Amino acid sequence: MKLSLACLLTAIAACSYSLQTSAGAGPHLGGHSSASPASSSSGATSAGGVPSSPETWNRWEVRGLKLGMPRTAVVAKGYTCGKSPRSSCYKFVDKRCEGHKCVLKQDMMGQWFELDGVRTKLDFITCDFTESDSALVYRIYLKFSPRQLLTPESTLGKALIKKYGPTSGYDAPSDADPDGGGRMTFGDMGHTYTPNIIADCNSPNDEAGGQCSLQVDDFAIEQTEKSKQEDIDKQNRQSRQPTTAPDL
């Protein structure tokens, strides 16, 4: 069952955020930007691509999570995960949860977060894993508040550039947005299988308050693991075959 949380928990452009649960998979929180990777309006820069490598994964760490990290290491950090060995994991990172009860709730109509029984937008982080026996992180998604100005000169923008390096794209915030806004990208957004980062503080309705998001992807991990898993599955199928042929 897939239920949109755009109107319940977050304000993500193009209704691209969703939370998914099933009896086997458990919670699945994730983000996805539907904007074209090559689109950047004002202030665009060209930083080029970065390699899919442990060096990049270490440098692009988010709240202790790293691309390429095995699921066992994520579970050890206290994340809530689904029952499936490849299902996604999440954790609340909202300071308001300290000493209070933060939970994920759902009913037939939708899903939401609650703080001490009150429906609330909460800061959280989630990660998705490759469909392989190794189950490595290929996506990290952070939702945080307050929603603020995201420009190269803003406090948030400077912090992102200091940590992740020069931007590869920048969309200026709307002048009509009273709380902030703006979008930055890092890495080579023009190619699919390269590491990239999307930081976004835009709001589809210029609503007051709200949150910003940070999404870190490396689909090269997913593709490499998929290829490896296909070889493993092929070998396993072969190993299960009878050692002798029938009489023909």
- Overall spatial form: globular
Number of domains: 1
Order of helices and strands: EEEHHEEEEEEEHEEEEH
Q: What percentage of the residues does DSSP assign to strands (E)?
A: 15-25%
Q: In whole angstroms, how far apart are the ends?
A: 49 Å
Mean pLDDT: 79
Rg on CA atoms, Å: 20 Å
The class by helix and strand makeup works out as alpha+beta
Walk me through what this model shows.
The protein is α+β, with helices and mostly antiparallel strands and 248 residues long. The chain has an 8-stranded antiparallel β-sheet. Strands 1-2-3 form a 3-stranded antiparallel β-sheet, with no helix packed on it. It has helices spanning 54-59, 71-76, 155-164, 219-239, and strands at 2-4, 18-20, 28-30, 80-81, 89-92, 102-106, 111-115, 118-119, 124-129, 137-144, 169-171, 183-187, 196-200, 212-217. A hairpin with a 7-residue loop joins strand 9 (124-129) and strand 10 (137-144). The chain has one domain. Mean pLDDT is 79; it is low at 1-30 and 32-47. It is 17% helix and 24% strand. It contains 4 helices and 14 strands. It is globular. The relative contact order is 0.18.
